Amino acid sequence: MTTANLSTSLDLPQPYLLFLGDTTEAGFAKTAFGLRDWAPELCVGELACSPDAVTLGLPKLTPAQAYAKGARSMIIGVANIGGRILDSWMPSLLEALEAGLDLVGGMHTRLVDTPALVAAAERHGRRLIDVRTPPRGIPTASGRKRSGKRLLAVGTDCALGKKYTALAIAKAFRRRGVKADFRATGQTGIMIAGSGMPMDAVVSDFEAGAAEVLSPDAAADHWDVIEGQGSLFHPSYAAVSLGLLHGSQPDVIVVCHEAGRTHVLGMPDYPLPSLEETIDLNLRLGRRTNPAIRCGGVSINTSKLSESEARQLMATESRRLGVPVADPIRGGDEFERLLDHCLRG
Question: Where in the numbering of this chain does the D-glutamate N-acetyltransferase-like N-terminal domain appear (predicted)?
Answer without folding.
Answer: 56-134
